[in-house]
Amino acid sequence: MDSYVKNFIIASVVYLGLSSLFGIMMMAAPAHLTLKFVHSHLMLLGWVTMMIYGVGYHVLPRFAGRLIKSRKAAEAQFWLANIGLIGMVICYTISTYSGAEGGLRILGAVFGLMEAASIMLFVYNMLATLVPKPEHPA
């Protein structure tokens, strides 16, 4: 298994555990319902999406009988996705509990853009791997 595949899967399982703890916190103390954003993003972008990335990178090229287009893009995507997600939830949590708006919201949006860039890297890497290049007549 490639290291970036393993890293996505390990991160995914860690996010599952974290999001579960946030879910329990919200059920135990409804005052923490302000953390719905954190819980849902750790669950969807963390657990679900990271698992899809890991399994997708491992399985889809094999189904297509091809090598992944760019290992470097997959590795960069891993870091962008994780830094983006962690940054978003930290900025959101601090701004929610401190009441600070301006700078933290903008920084959170920057982390969100990092997350979107990681998604686009996955889209590029998968399409470049799975869609065959048109053959040119000789």
UniProtKB/TrEMBL annotation:
Cited Gene3D superfamilies: Cytochrome c oxidase-like, subunit I domain
From the record, give the transmembrane residue ranges.
7-29, 41-60, 80-100, 106-127
Stored SUPFAM superfamilies? Cytochrome c oxidase subunit I-like
Q: Extract the Pfam families matched here.
A: COX1
Asked whether the keyword NAD is assigned, the reply is no
Q: What keywords sit in the KW lines?
A: Membrane, Transmembrane, Transmembrane helix
The protein's name = Cytochrome C and Quinol oxidase polypeptide I
Naturally occurring in which organism (per UniProt)? Candidatus Magnetominusculus xianensis
Give the taxonomic lineage as stored in the record. Bacteria, Pseudomonadati, Nitrospirota, Nitrospiria, Nitrospirales
